[in-house]
Fold HAD family hydrolase.
Amino acid sequence: MLNAVLFDLDGTLLDRDKSLKMFLEDQYERYREYMVNVQRADFINYFIDFDNHGYVPKTAVYDQLFAALDISYIKPSDLLRDFDDKYPHFAYSYDDTLETLRRLQARGYKLGIITNGSTKHQTMIIDVLGLETLVTGFVISEEVGYRKPSPRIFEVMLDQLGERAEDCMFVGDHPDNDVRASRELGMIPVFKDNGYFERPSGYCITRLTELLDIVEELHANS
């Protein structure tokens, strides 16, 4: 029986592409006096390319950005510090994130978030998006010392909720970190397809509201 629906954060509940672009536009404008001969579009597009959907450390991203655009008069560490301080304030959810979570919550499902990342960033993003009142709990890799796809980070969440893996669904946008890892624990995996990766087998959605139909199907067959 399905009792809980668990989510990845970045790219699943958080519209990371939009959030990052909004932050980079703001960062460029605030540091524009140092961007001699650097076009705004190049600053944003190069960063997004080097960032590889968040899977490259930001230290390396800014180092590559400075080398590619020949930015002077300021150091990569200055913009990295600015990113650490300000990026979470630009967090923007998908347009159906809150609606979907509220409808699942109203149906009595426990909700949770399992995310890789820094405790400071991810906690702030959850707060900015207004998710804290909608979820029963959340687990952040830096805080617990395990990163997806390690089964241990999922088990920490299961212990918090008091649920068995087979009674939980996990929704995420990474075929390995989210889908394979949760499936191997016995959860029901749902892949949120953002167009970055090849679709794995099983349930697949492009919008979060599609989850509601999957949940109804599972309930009818239980």
User: Anything to note?
Assistant: The radius of gyration is 19 Å. The mean pLDDT is 96.
